[in-house]
Amino acid sequence: MTWKRPPSPVTKKFKVQRSAAKVMATVFWDAKANLTQQWLQRYGWEILPHPAHSPDLAPSDFHLFGPLRRHLGGMAFETEDDLISGLRNWFDNLDVDSFRVGINSLLSRWQKCIDLHEDYVEK
Predict the structure, then answer these.
(1) pLDDT tens digits, 28-44
(2) What's the Rg (C-alpha) of the chain?
């Protein structure tokens, strides 16, 4: 019920459209993975703890989700299976060098973090 004065215009009602369903993707990086740690030690990589409040240092935030969002932008999936198929297709067609480039780009980000004494790091 709407209260109004007699000369007031009639309130227009807008048709409500259902928004597109959203899906959350979660990626877990295991710092305790023996195979990964052995590989890093074999090639002389130093393992650094992830500083608090620096999400730009998380590989999935800048190297995985960004390109994935650009790839899937504007696409609509009818079913969850269609979405899963689209994701698998993207992962299957990733160039191996894309991971190397992403990990190497962490070097400058980490250096900023070290220079700021582990304070917040932005792009």
Answers:
(1) 666 667 887 888 889 99
(2) 23
The candidate with the shortest Cα–Cα distance to 118, out of 52, 68, 72, is 52
Distance separating alpha carbons of residues 116 and 53, to the nearest angstrom: 12
Are 107 and 68 contacting, i.e. CB atoms less than 8 angstroms apart? no
Contacts of 111 (CB under 8 A, 6+ apart): none
The residue to which tokens 């877990």 are assigned: 28
The model's pTM is 0.51
Residue 85 to residue 64: CA distance in whole angstroms: 17
Sole residue written with tokens 């240092």: 57
Q: Which tops the pLDDT comparison, 4 or 70?
A: 70
For 5-23, write each residue's pLDDT tens digit. 667 676 676 676 766 667 7
Task: Tell me the domains of the chain and their CATH numbers.
Answer: 34-115 (3.30.420.10)
